Amino acid sequence: MNLFPDEGKRLLEALLLCSAEPLTLKVLTEITDYESSEILDLLSEIQRDYQQQSRGFALTEIAGGWMFATYPEHAPYIEKLVKPRLSSLSQAALEVLSIVAYRQPITRAEIEEIRGVSCDSSLGTLLDRALVEEKGRKDAPGRPILFGTTTDFLKYFGLSSLKDLPAFPSLPAGGEDDRSTDHTICS
């Protein structure tokens, strides 16, 4: 398409502002007919522009795509405005979410083995809030459901991928710190 750089930046800004989800490079190339390298250059320019202008938000690579996001230091004020749904997660739900994030894909029985108690309610809450989803079935007797985190999980925690999770000091016996699963957004 090869528009002038300023027009290309305005086009990408408009697309990013109109999308509630991070936009992947694939989606941006399909919509704009720009080459991937051109889009990456324009996104870098937009990021620089916003940093130089000291705006209240920035263009951020998150959950396998790009979107505008506010700065972490503004979070307490924004939370007062939007009252995020995660603030009402119970301690048990947060524990289950942590286990799923670090051990995915994981079955309900494996979560319960780690926690030592039932996780039905917590897992139901996480599924309802789209922080966890079914990822398939384990090749084991009964073919139990495997659970993993979603792109909403990545967005809420400001992660580009699961590789950005902080290192976990140790896991219960049999667990490894395997964060090789990567999420991308397919808008």
List keywords for this structure.
alpha+beta; Arc Repressor Mutant, subunit A; two-stranded antiparallel ribbon; 187 residues; elongated; 45% helix; 3-stranded antiparallel β-sheet; 13% strand
- In helices, the fraction of residues equals 40-55%
Q: Which range does the strand content fall in? A: 5-15%
User: What is the CATH architecture term of the largest domain?
Assistant: Orthogonal Bundle
Number of helices: 8
- For the record, the count of structural domains works out to 2
Compute the number of strand runs: 5
Taking the sheet with the most strands, its summary is: 3 strands, antiparallel
- Oligomeric category: single chain
Termini separation comes to 21 Å
What would you say this structure looks like, in words?
The chain is of the alpha+beta class. The protein folds into 2 domains: 5-76, Arc Repressor Mutant, subunit A; 88-164, Arc Repressor Mutant, subunit A (Orthogonal Bundle), CATH 1.10.10.10. Helix content is 45%, strand content 13%. It has 8 helices and 5 strands. The protein has helices at residues 5-18, 25-32, 36-52, 75-82, 91-103, 108-115, 120-128, 151-157, and strands at residues 57-62, 65-70, 106-107, 132-137, 145-149. The strands form 2 sheets. Strands 3-5-4 form a 3-stranded antiparallel β-sheet. The chain has a two-stranded antiparallel sheet with strand order 1-2. The protein starts with a helix and ends in a 30-residue tail after the last helix. 23% of the residues are buried.
